[in-house]
Amino acid sequence: MNLVASEVPPTARPASSAPRGFFARGWVAFKELWCESIPLWFPLLSVGLAIFAALFIDQTTGILQALVDESSSQDATEKALANLQQWHYWAFILGLCLWSFVNYESTRLLHQFDYNSPDYAGRLSDRKGWLGNVFKKMERLSPIVAGLGPVVAVALGFAVLQQTYSLADEPLAWRRVFALYAPCIIIGLLVFVLPLRTKGQTTSHSRRLDDKLSKTPVKIVLIFFVLVLLLVTGTLLVPGMWSVIGPAATLCVIATIFVIAGSLLVFWGGRWRLPLIFLTLLYCVLISTCNDNHRVRLRHDASPSRTYQVFGIRDALQAWQDRLPLTEPSPKPGQKTPLFIVCAEGGGVRAAYWAARLLAYLEDTTRQYPDQYVPFSSRVLAISGVSGGSLGAVTFTALLDAQPTRAAASPDWFFKHTANFLGRDQLSAPLASAAFIDGTQRFIPFPLFNDHDRAAGLEKAWEQAWNASLQSDAGEPKRFCHFDDDFRELWRHRGDPTTPNASTPWIPSLFLNGTSVELGGRIIASDCVIPTPDYPGAQDALYLLKLRDGGAARTAPGVFRMSSAVNLSTRFPGISPSGELPGDEQQYPQRVVDGGYYDNSGARTAWDNLVALYYKRLGDPDHVSDVIPWIIVIRAGPAWKRQTPTFPRQHSEHLNFMPAPLRPTRSHFMVDALAPPRAFLNAWAARSGDSTEALKDGANLISRRLSGQDHAPKSQITAGPVAQKLP
After folding, report:
1. Paired strand residues for 555
2. Which parts of 212-245 fold into alpha helices (H)?
3. Whole-model pTM?
């Protein structure tokens, strides 16, 4: 396929334009390298982004792991997921072939043209000698390099995945190693075979950009726009269709469209002699003030069906205490009752997995032995979640809503249901929405796709995965609270905490933490009100959404979906955009992002709850109590220890010839530019660990005073290591 009309002869290159002199040849060589790289810009950019993701983003390793992981369970649901996994694997191979082919073919077609100025005809590849031969081989190999790029990126990702298995002392079997690398080898060989059909043709840079074109470029543009229209329409109407091919294949399709779009910009920008890429970016920046489609989803078309009472954490504590005789009718003399407040740390899907699975494990274990234990959830007052930890907390609470009684259908009922939900694809839809809906929206000067951005795609993926997990369950799905139901429906079985009713089951309160972009403080979605005196610097998300006021009761004017409440805490920019909360005549709208920007541990909100509950009680001379608060911190990252920080001086052995004071460290590299962002990122990471340690000390002090043991030795009250014992 050629882009230039066949009747147009190649451009003649007069010998008189050959460069003379060392510096002239050097300048021409630099221009030749630049022109050689122009067709490779977007193919190599897509490959570079893929390599960065494979090496530095854990989520990419998880996506590749989902292609080859094997389940030892013979459960019908696991078998169905295994069959879907096989289809995802073959879809990924086809997507990788498509990405490699487009990289190769776009580079080959763009190499037909000379990207120098129209009046320049001298080229080093036309000269005799070793320099001319080098440039001729570069022109020949450039499409092959572009086609091999996706294969190299995926192979690096598989190598990182294999290293992860090795660190876990779980070496991969040869069959799984073959499944990892065989597609890369086969596609790589095909990329070498493709140039054989053009062997002998010397069309590289033989055409000027202003030569007469064939109809092929126009056809390519029309086909591209039709394809994008179909992808946008399909993603808009049926976002779940991307789960059929899986997230890995979805990323390959996105990379393919990215390369095609970028190559078209390169071609037409060169032909029109315009900086089309820069102008496109400038246009997107200029219209960005009027095409924002990232609002927090709120369904206003629902008719009011319930009245939700306004209550605080103290009312929740009183309701919990009213249920103590029901859950434990005959306590032992002098027995102390634990009151758990759980912190679920952020960390993406991994954090959601650990939080939900650990809480489910504790619930299953305590319900399995009713003669020895009370259900774990009956002793949990509140769960403070951040980012992925919020998803895990809501998953556990939604299962409690469906299984509030002490009798469980199976010994691992909670554990299986969390695996059924979190083991499903929840990334394909938001990835496609980010590329095709949000990407298209950036070129439209008004918000056309409200409530259909990548945040909505993620929320709909949760809703679809939850519904699919319920349909595969043998029980009755109607008894579950769905992710597209109102967030406040999670506590429908618990009832109103302000009304004494010890007969209803206990379901813990949730505190899902987001961060305000404008104010920097927390925005908390909870069933409890968030008054400023009890939660300094924090705001009530339901109040900002006009779903709750200061009165005793209010009829809900809309539905704040459970998935939207979770996403209020998980909006990490790039993956899920910041969401706009509506303003009014008294205040401007605010934007909310991931709660980890403020505190990734959730410890600050847990501490505010402790202070609100026990500040006045500790001032009472008779403050000794049989209810002792405990803190459970579920970590998704490395454990922090209370110790003096150290930063040992380390250097390469190759620098031993230098005096010790002069040996450079990584702190010396671009210190003026990199020191401030490094300090910000390191302080951001350290703040969560410090908050957790401070919470542990405060909770330890309160527990000792309430138990009358002010001088008791400190105890470790974090439950992070428990997660390592899960089967």
Report:
1. 307
2. 216-237
3. 0.86
